[in-house]
């Protein structure tokens, strides 16, 4: 109702298809209404009839025009229903003044009742929740709809229906008392529980009206007979009609339903987004956190952050807390608010593929329960542009690179405003290499193109926050909260010192190590690692960070040599299961180091492991089967694996001295919330490093600086190419203006010493033009003013669409062009060569004997590929035998072909262990090569889609990308599409009879636990939830495709013209 009551609406109840029970459909008069005086009975009788028809008197039968509205009546006799209906109609037509009075009276009642009730209508996905102060819910399954007072409902509703409603009302007297009790009970329960109803349901207060006596007058027989004949004739005609008959009542129902939806939409837009008691979210969200994650209460800082004024006003926000402080939960709640309350899509950017998959597994259950999609954008996965959903919203979880491509596609299709929120985890990575430059480009584009998209950034290691605040136009929140107290120690020789900022030299004596060392042990373990780890394992967990991968393996073996045999008995059965599962995923192969260390509960963790091995070991560590990891620094920034004690083997990462940021991330793993009461970190150092370490523990965190210009081809040039390709900025002035709004623009005074930002902008555009990626157009605005506009070439568009490093785009084009001259399709070797990543070639050092052996085993067709590329067997033979070579051969082509041999062997054998041994490469390196090739193959596919001359590659690369992504037998691919299901798990599931996505989506987690070895309840639930989510996504995409095919095209001839004429 509009303010001031200027517009008066009536409510009409429209019947649903489902028949309600009699016990909940009648309206009983209130006591106040029964006490009215007799002198108004005649007037109120008609008014009451009107109100009953418009305020919720509900028929048992359906009254669509296609159905028999007369129920079981099969004759038209003297006392028939039709006769009574005709009498009522005649009486009513004779009382125009009474009807007018009744209308005014009913309208006034409705108006006054509406004013008394304050309705709060708010959206939640496809649901609408409505709260009332004192009225009951509409339990009957009918809709209350508002109509304008100008429409006279009594003329629109046939008199037969009106009489039918009245008969039902009168028959309700016997059930009145019972219904009043039920309604009182429901009303009281409604005050305590917020009900959620489907979107097309809106709770309205039901009105209690007076009951009236039946209106009956007699009529003459001839007239009734004529009515009977007329009705029989009409009904017979309708039944024989070939086309459906649309009644006025049905048209009225559709009109009213349409108006109701419009009113609801306006109410939603004007009201707050408060859907419930849990930070504007329904209590169901809180229940899910308890059920799925065991989180019953938020920390105080989380509550403070979520209730910040800046957050309520949807301002951009940066927040920083120590590792393990619970940052992610705040981000998740904000994302759910956006998805459910604001009804917009959300993008979450995470640094690594493993973390993306972990997050998808964790949030798929929320998506299933709350009605939104969770989509993976990592590696070769992700759809560009993303599927435009009909109703449900999407949560995109992406790596930095895929997040950038996603934002580009949304800008290009004009859908960037559909992105309501962008969350960036590990925001400090904006200052790290080419990935930092890509992250900066992504955020700068969002800031420039969408004024409605909110950006939330979080990190544990931020220092120069002011620069980031200025760049993101964001508020800042920080806290030093940690759920578990962390104590930091230094160990020099056999003495342990506690770090104390108040002490003179930054540390105070704590204790001596009490561990009896034999002479042999002192030589093998000079750093007393065995003494430090045995203080906590096996009952508590421990992480030992080592400088290098080889050191991780050596330390793990050394510790196990000196552990007592008692450690073998701890969870012995479970450790045997881990070893068996490692053998299964390695097709019978098992790393000899792990074979010796796992029985003691110890394992190493670094990039040399395959994804399957890493996942299995992490699961075993999380469940307490393994109690000690020796690991590299990458674990600190990867998946969440906390420990009671964290030991830093040395203050070095490889050969470089430890940075403050790295140190904070490593020690942040100490202390497991809900398990430990305290966390400890011990940094082992030598006397020579003491001074540097004391500086390390006292100095502030390192500043992060823009990498946009330092990463030339992956940074500023790629940015300019995409700005022009997406038409964000197409002339020099606009591009320069955009650059001033970047993180680099904020820091230009610090970063630029020799050249100005304008000079760098001009130079970069000149370089892109010379390389054939841009074309410059000069427009003379006046005699003095000249404007330089740029547009992208076909090669430029292909490069930015494929996200190809501009250092390699011309080489890629040349290789693909040359490939067309003699593309060998008898095997996959030629295509595999074309999709081998260029950036891995420089790191490759071929084993020439292995190279020669593999070369000599090639088929004639495969040798033809090598000949086309200019690599001969004689050249490889001479390199293998150490002979001098006079003929000049491109080293990059030779190295790239060697890596292609590795990938080709993988595609044929699908066994990383076998290929690793064949080429004498670490299995982790082989898998990283495979992952990189799958991602690059996807990029080359997008590159070829933009160039008509490369049409032949499109279909070929779709299949090759899929093969490289999964690299397993074809029957396992459907299972591996599910997030978190890797090859080893897919084999287990397939053997157990789960052979398709549908099988997994309908699986019972409890049955899975019993069927699949070493599968926890949490993992089983995540697999089933992820499968359901993927199945729903595919079904939704197909439904959208069907609707698109059936939808009338917007450019259909006559559509625009007719709409113009109507206007």
TrEMBL record:
Keywords: ATP-binding, Chromosome, DNA damage, DNA repair, DNA-binding, Helicase, Hydrolase, Isomerase, Nucleotide-binding, Nucleus. GO terms for molecular function: 3'-5' DNA helicase activity; ATP binding; DNA binding; hydrolase activity. SUPFAM superfamilies: P-loop containing nucleoside triphosphate hydrolases, Sec63 N-terminal domain-like, Winged helix' DNA-binding domain. Its EC number is 5.6.2.4. It catalyses: Couples ATP hydrolysis with the unwinding of duplex DNA by translocating in the 3'-5' direction; ATP + H2O = ADP + phosphate + H(+). Residues 186-223 are annotated as: Disordered. Residues 528-720 form the Helicase C-terminal domain. It holds the Pfam family HTH_61. Residues 203-220 have a biased composition (Polar residues). Residues 308-480 form the Helicase ATP-binding domain. It is found in: Chromosome; Nucleus. GO terms for cellular component: chromosome; nucleus. One of its GO terms (biological process) is DNA repair. The keyword S-adenosyl-L-methionine does not apply. The keyword Heme does not apply. Belongs to the helicase family. SKI2 subfamily. Single-stranded 3'-5' DNA helicase that plays a key role in homology-driven double-strand break (DSB) repair. Involved in different DSB repair mechanisms that are guided by annealing of extensive stretches of complementary bases at break ends, such as microhomology-mediated end-joining (MMEJ), single-strand annealing (SSA) or synthesis-dependent strand annealing (SDSA). Possesses both DNA unwinding and annealing activities. Forms a complex with RAD51, stimulating HELQ DNA helicase activity and ability to unwing DNA. Efficiently unwinds substrates containing 3' overhangs or a D-loop. This is Helicase POLQ-like. The gene is HELQ.
